[in-house]
Amino acid sequence: MEVIFMVKKKTAPKKKATKPVKKAAKVTIIKPASKKKTAKQEKVNTAVYVNGNLMGFHPDGAGLAGRLREKRRMNELNYEVNVFYNDRTNEVFINTDAGRVRKPYVVIEEGKSRLTPEVLNRVRSGALSWEHLVKMGVIEYLDAEEEENSLIALSEEEISSNHTHFEVLPSTIFGVTSSVLPYPEHNSAPRITMACSMAKQSLGLYAVNFNHRFDTRAYVMYYPQNPLVSTDLYKTLNMKKKAAGQNFVVAITAYKGYNMGDGTVVNRNAIDRGLGRAMMLKTYDSEERLYPGGQRDKIEIPTPDVVGYRGDEPYRFLDEDGIIYPESQLTGKEVLVGKTSPPRFLEEISVFGVVEEKKRESSLSLKSGDTGAVDAVMVTEAPSGNRLVKIKIRTPKIPEVGDKFASRHGQKGVIGLLLKQEDMPFTKDGIVPDLILNPHAIPSRMTAGHLLETLGGKASALGGKLMDGTAFSGNTREDYVKVLKEQGFNEEGEEWLYDGITGQKIKVKLFIGPVYYQRLHHLVSNKMHVRSRGPVQLLTLQPTEGRAREGGLRFGEMERDCLIGYGASMVIRERLLEESDKTIQLVCNKCGMFAYKDQIKNKQICPLCEGADISPIEMSYAFKLLLGEIRSMFIFPRIILKDKA
User: Fold this and answer.
1) Model's pTM, two decimal places?
2) What is the dihedral sign for C-alpha 325, 326, 329, 334?
3) What pLDDT does residue 608 have?
4) The one catalytic residue among 262, 285, 423, 479
5) Any catalytic annotation for residue 479?
6) Which end of the chain is more exposed for a tag (fewer CB within 10 A), N or C?
7) What DSSP string runs through 324-352?
């Protein structure tokens, strides 16, 4: 019985996609499953699945898979079809569904590549395109399953009679982000993973029309640069138009303990000249909402008779329409959009029958800790049809102690010291490093790629051309050594440096050269948080949590354990009681129940025994809540009081 496989190609119309597939599949005969089949026949025949559905059985699964692949290479079967023969379970899987990750390879037949010199010359001349190569069967796409039936050579030189394919480019074994990193094959795997994560956190030029956009939060680097050592994919993706880093001159040495561990020493004068400087753009928005009773918010400058009026100072930058004007310099909790709202509840009619509508103050103001200038103001209409105002705040972010930087090899670190240029070490040519990296960061992490990039960056700067750091096929150490020798430099990239403070020659040569460094968005100014007093939670009366809510710093169980071990009992009392949720509760001396004060009778009463023998007790409000929860489970906890001995 003939079974027709119908493969639908997404991009093409229905008829065009299925016709050639039907034609190619008709040559294959598949016997459907039968109840009369013997156990012996079941073992011999190969189960055939299309997109996970059992279609029937075939006497020769390996031959079927081979013929279908041949039809695909002859362009009789859609190039998106993949065939996998599992010899262990004797099953054939034909996949045509969407969502598979597929990768192109050059086809090898009988130990010879189908990408012959003649074909290659026609590609170079422009006579053949990539699509032509796919239709000719020179290139074919394999999915994860069909790759299991293949033996893939990394390069053409490795091809043997057993190989079925070879990589178009050896570097394509990496993903998009990894392929942008130079020399990943010289680094340990965890460092490449970390470098990929940090490349996504780098501050750069995310969009060329950033000044017209109102993104919630965005960063723009002042002077993004093209790396001196880049990769093929970096150029293919045109990443230089979206650069996210700068070429730092990096010296590898220790400096008086300020770059211990992952710390780095950075040239303060270089930062003053714009090194690593970025701009943060943050958008605030406010809308005139419509309420069910027909009432609505109004954008205006609130007047003193409004409930919640903040005084004259916060409204000083507002224009006549209640919206802040551009280029206002903001430092505190200034109001950006003045807004008044109708009361939450309907007003009652007074004795004289007059209803006085009291408006609430609901202005949009700058969050605590934020500073900057108003970059742009946009007045528009929200999807709901209400008036919407968006305010973009511009804040310069100058590198400071604690800000995070990273190379493209997972070598991350924070600034430990900003050192004046005259105190930095310098070469005989007067070159002063922008950043000093600790030598211990290299050997234990096995990031030889970092050293190779330093050498490449130096050769690039001296030779006057960009270098290639593509995995497996980029410039080698020998290429860099040749350039450095020609320019009269040490072939290892080392130079004599002189101490900036004493002027004396440093005893050993130091490894120095340009490395592409990224500034990451973990900025001290966005994380800096301190509080002496502030808001508390409504339920527990403890300080709120988080920088955004002006919260306190958590003093947890482990911190408490340290103080217990140290014997600092009064510090524990201060942190966990005095500075937290201290409260005074009335407790009945007779029954141990919480009492209350009757404001009308002006006396303290116990609700349980109605006694008047009551004492004020100092306790944590969280403890009072705990006792309340225990009572809710029908357990009566009593507080037994007695005088101190």
Assistant:
1) 0.81
2) positive
3) 87
4) 262
5) no
6) C
7) BPTT-EE-SS-EEE-EEE--SSPPPP-TT
